[in-house]
Design brief:
Radius of gyration: 27 Å
Distance between the termini: 21 Å
Helix content: 25-40%
Number of strands: 18
Low-confidence stretches: 106-111, 132-166, 554-564
Bound molecules: nicotinamide-adenine-dinucleotide
Length: 564
């Protein structure tokens, strides 16, 4: 199966692309051969200024269109652009430019502005009468117009990306399809060696020969270490093509997830599992899926792996507190093929230090199903929602069971990230809660114990100590509300929850962005005052100003390194 996806070129070693078809922004269109509709739209909709981020936006949109069977939704478009940062144009014209590719109701954008009883136009953002809109009109034939509205001449997905253009679309090169997989051993500058085994036994053999070799999957951590932290690794073993590390299986006791599984793959898999299994079994799956949404942009999730994230053991890892709280186990294999299992909660030993010996590697993760009345929640607070590392994050799980006619907490796990060198378990709090029924009366004592369990010294790395401390409490409070609400709903508890607090249990969602820019343009026969496409906009659409690649991945690759 051929997979088409975006990746960040700055984090993709050339070696790792052997056998893939690389499509860059120049490849999809330029001034001589004609622009791709995606490039054209961005220019027309004034979606660039300095042009630095523009190729990245173009390739993200291109990849989404090429890998979707149907026109994407507006949410999908915004999701696919989330890993791209713009510092000058602003996102409105960029999103506006691409909205024509979405399955959407064009009238939303082309409709006349709302009017109040007096016939005054109402500003969509303030809800108040808006004088500039009175003087302008959304009719494209008028000389005076709202630029962001004008661009929404109804334009269907098919007209843009359908037959007329698809004849020109790049295809996966047949010669690459015919090539066969071969293990790789490449020698680079300064004695660097890059191995790519195709079987677990080859990988274990290489590990036994080079106990100090760096294993690589997505390179999204190692790439940062070598580029920005002066790390040097002489021998690198890419484990991306070892099938045993790519397991994704539904088993009797839970999910079996190979360590080289990419986060984007995991998202897709979890969505399917959640759709197919009972909700009581998949509370952990759901929490991990929701946390992955805020993990990073699409280009990172397409390459970053489950095992890479675990073994990096970053104190702010978004997933490690969840693996611990959900009771996941890690399978570890040594060079003699011996497999041992360790609980995720025992795996993180110190700052970026894990329970792996030099002759061992992480094989897979076993994620247990949740049981009836077992609830799992994820938490993350960062400076901003998308593409940011956590100030504090957490994973929490609580199992409620019936004992002598009472429904009480029988098992609980509360784990915080971002508060110490390793994810911290709130052990005293957990012990206190076992055997209790949750109600408001427990909260004061729980908060006091949480402060003891998760102490943040005044000079704790990361600063903002008071804020981060309050986050640890508020995450628990949200979890308390969530579990109590669920039990109340099932009629098993009757705890009076304050209605004012209930918004705290709703997961964050945001509607698709809609914005308009209102200004008056008076045509005087010159360019002044006209919303004209700037001269370099077309060039920016196709220059490699940002390292954004798209790769066609194909399982059949051969001995040679290809690059185009
Ligand atoms: N750069 C970014 O923008 C960004 C954003 C979010 C997350 N991330 C990173 O994503 C990473 C995810 O993984 P990646 O695949 O890119 O990592 P990677 O290939 O960079 O490897 C990360 C570390 O994990 C080790 N490792 C990988 N697989 C292993 C295995 N099976 N057994 C033992 N050790 C193993 C590697 O040797 C390395 O030390 C996270 O750790 C995080 O740092 C990066």
């Amino acid at each position: 199966m051929i997979k088409l996806q975006t990746i960040n070129a700055c984090l993709a070693p050339l070696y790792s692309l052997e056998g893939m078809h690389i499509i860059t922004v120049e490849g999809i269109g330029d001034r001589q051969r004609g622009l791709h509709p995606v490039q054209e739209r961005l220019a027309e909709a004034h979606g660039s200024q300095c042009g630095f981020c523009t190729p990245g936006f173009v390739m993200s949109m291109y990849a989404l269109l090429r890998s979707s069977k149907h026109p994407p939704t507006e949410e999908q478009i915004e999701d696919s652009l989330a890993g791209n940062l713009c510092r000058c144009t602003g996102y409105r014209p960029i999103i506006d430019a691409f909205r024509v590719f979405a399955k959407t109701d064009d009238s939303l954008y082309t409709a006349s502005p709302l009017e109040n009883a007096n016939g005054q136009a109402i500003c969509p953002s303030t809800g108040k009468p808006c004088s500039c809109r009175n003087e302008t009109d959304v009719n494209a034939n008028e000389s005076s117009t709202l630029s962001s509205v004008k661009v929404y001449l109804p334009c269907s997905y098919n007209e843009i990306d359908g037959n007329s253009y698809s004849e020109k679309e790049l295809i996966f090169p047949p010669e690459l399809q015919l090539r066969k997989f071969m293990p790789l051993k490449l020698n680079g500058f300064n004695g660097i060696r890059w191995y790519r085994p195709l079987k677990l036994e080859q990988l274990l053999y290489l590990r036994s020969c080079y106990p100090d070799a760096k294993l690589i999957i997505g390179n999204s951590e190692v790439g940062v270490e070598t580029k920005f932290k002066n790390a040097q690794y002489k021998v690198m073993i890419s484990v991306t093509h070892v099938p045993e590390l790519h397991t994704l299986k539904v088993e009797e006791h839970g999910l079996h997830i190979g360590s080289a599984v990419r986060l984007a793959q995991l998202q897709k898999f979890l969505k399917n599992v959640i759709a197919e299994r009972g909700s009581h079994e998949t509370s952990s799956c759901y929490a991990i899926l929701r946390q992955l949404k805020w993990f990073a942009g699409t280009q990172i999730r397409n390459v970053a792996s489950v095992g890479g994230n675990i073994c990096t053991a970053s104190p702010i890892s978004d997933l490690n507190p969840l693996w611990m709280a959900t009771g996941a186990n890690f399978q570890i294999i040594d060079v003699n093929n011996n497999v041992r299992t360790t609980a995720a909660k025992d795996f993180f030993l110190g700052y970026r230090k894990v329970d792996l010996k030099a002759d061992e590697i992480l094989l897979s993760v076993i994620l247990p199903w949740t049981r009836p009345y077992e609830y799992v929640k994820e938490f993350k607070q960062a400076h901003r929602r998308e593409d940011d590392i956590a100030l504090v994050n957490a994973g929490m799980r609580m199992h409620i069971t019936e004992a002598e006619g009472n429904w009480i907490v029988s098992d609980v796990s509360i784990v915080y990230g971002g508060v110490a060198a390793v994810p911290l378990t709130a052990a005293k709090t957990e012990k206190f809660l076992v055997g209790k029924k949750l109600d408001d009366g427990l909260l004061d004592e729980t908060f006091n114990l949480l402060k003891e369990d998760i102490p943040l010294a005044e000079n704790a790395p990361g600063g903002m100590v008071e804020f981060r401390s309050s986050l640890t409490l508020s995450f628990f409070f949200k979890f308390f509300l969530y579990v109590t609400h669920e039990m109340n709903n099932k009629g098993l508890w009757k705890v009076g929850l304050d209605a004012a607090n209930m918004s705290a249990i709703q997961s964050y969602t945001r509607p698709v962005s809609i914005g308009t820019q209102g200004y008056e343009s008076v045509g005087q026969g010159t360019a002044v005052g006209q919303p004209m496409v700037h001269m370099s906009a077309i060039l920016q659409r196709s220059l490699v100003r940002q390292n954004m690649l798209m790769t066609h991945q194909h399982p059949r690759i051969s001995y040679m390194l290809l690059w185009c």
